[in-house]
Amino acid sequence: MNMQTTGMHLVDATDAPEIYVLIGVPGSGKSTWVEKFLASSTKEFTVVSSDAVLDQIAAEKGLKYSDVHKDFIGLATSKAKQIFREALASRANIIFDQTNVSKKKRRGILQQTPKDYVKLAVVFQTEDKEVDRRLTERAEKTGKHIPGFVMKDMYSRWETPTRDEGFDRIIKA
User: Fold this and answer.
1) Residue 54, Cβ neighbours under 10 Å: how many?
2) Rounded distance, CA 159 to CA 136, Å?
3) Using CB atoms within 10 A as the burial measure, which of 4, 11, 58, 149 is most buried?
4) How far apart are CA 104 and CA 97, in angstroms?
């Protein structure tokens, strides 16, 4: 495979579709990375994000993320899976913007992804104090509150990704 690195992007000379699987706890910088990446990319990407679906539901209802999470997380997850299936069917470039902290979760994504996709892991390992600061700021600004027990669970399930999982490249954000 003929690949070159250019800034944040991995360029594949064969122009195969790409999937970026983001890996990091809430507040580690994934969605901010997506915004910057999309702004600088010359390619089109489909972003798979249950949080984005929840944000849309909340906006439609005139509520905040935390107000709709409990009642609509199932719907948001189903919609994100549908977006992923449709992106694969159309051979779109994909950014999978969820926490994806466990090998099992990533395996489920990669098993559905055709072999000819370039599979990239983007790992976000942000210091705990910075994550806490970002989550506090986010909660104040947007009403999106991540409970401590959820964060503790995320950290306890963290498994560092490896190429053995099926990634062509692992990028530290």
Assistant:
1) 24
2) 25
3) 58
4) 16
Which regions of the chain does DSSP assign to beta strands (E)? 3-6, 9-12, 18-23, 45-48, 93-96, 118-123, 169-172
Strands 169-172 and 118-123: parallel
Cβ-Cβ contacts under 8 Å for 103 (sequence gap 6 or more) = 159, 161, 165
Q: Which runs of E-coded beta strand occur in 54-101?
A: 93-96
**What is the domain-level CATH number for residue 64?**
3.40.50.300
Q: Write out the chain's pLDDT in tens, 173 residues.
A: 334 343 444 444 458 999 999 999 999 999 999 999 999 999 999 999 999 999 999 999 999 888 999 999 999 999 999 999 999 999 999 999 999 999 999 999 999 999 999 999 999 999 999 999 999 999 998 888 898 999 999 999 999 999 999 999 999 99
* Token code pair at residue 146: 């991540």
Residue type at 27? G
Containing structural domain, residue 106: 3-172
* Rounded Cα–Cα distance for residues 136 and 92 (Å): 35
Q: How many domains does the chain have?
A: 1
